[in-house]
Write a structure and sequence with these properties.
mainly beta, four-stranded antiparallel beta sheet, 2 helices, 20 strands, globular, disordered N terminus
Length: 280
Amino acid sequence: MIPPALSSMSAVTPNSTCIPSFRPFEATQATPIDSPDNVDYILSLLPNPSTNIVYSRQASGTIVELAPDSTGNLTPISTISAGRGDSCADACPVNETLLATVAANGIVSLWDRRSPSTSKINVFPSNLTSRGFGEAMKLSVGLDGTLVVVGCDDGALVFGDVRFLPQSPGDFLGAFTDSHTDTISAVSFNPSNPHQLASASEDGLITLFDIRKGTEDLAVQTVMNTTGCPRSFDWFGETYDGIVVFDGSETVGFWSHGPGVRMGEERGFGGEIPFGNGAR
């Protein structure tokens, strides 16, 4: 059953758009990839909630920084070469100046957009695959930009502290390895609760953790079985007590994550929803 607040969603139309149009740019403005047309495809768009900057994660492993010009069009202003050899598996804005990236082999890097060359300023030189974890798939940064969590294709969630990077690079705080049995498809901190982490996996589960707890078993708060294959999710509600989930069957599900109850769903969406950093 769809709750009343969701029953009229199909009738909602936008009054305006933030960006009137998206002006295409030449592939030479990002690292080109080997393809018949030499086209660098966009894999995802990452809005920075602290600024008007949008990061475009490219198939070549680069990240293009976009900003609206005087006419409102998104225009490339810089490019980050985030690791073509290992590819850029995911990226996450840390604050208005820093961007975190993770390569497929699990190397986590921080980039400072204030630098003229958008240089990399900190690195975990020890990659996750060499430490026995699977390939890195997803990345999130929480606790005011201090805690990094990487989701892997073996279902592991690996944690690192950004503040310790200069002193002990390569050291990770620990990992949750038992809550998921398949590839991590999304991971995100609650915008209103910095100690609450949610992870989605191709095993069909979305799990919420209280990262203040000492062990993985104690940290688990709620497990929601979507009975599908969740591809992405976001938080919603005045206190972000809801989670909206998009799965591989083009279905959007609405959950109350406190009791772990499904509130409703909408079917027939034709593409992935570009979830951001929490929607009210």
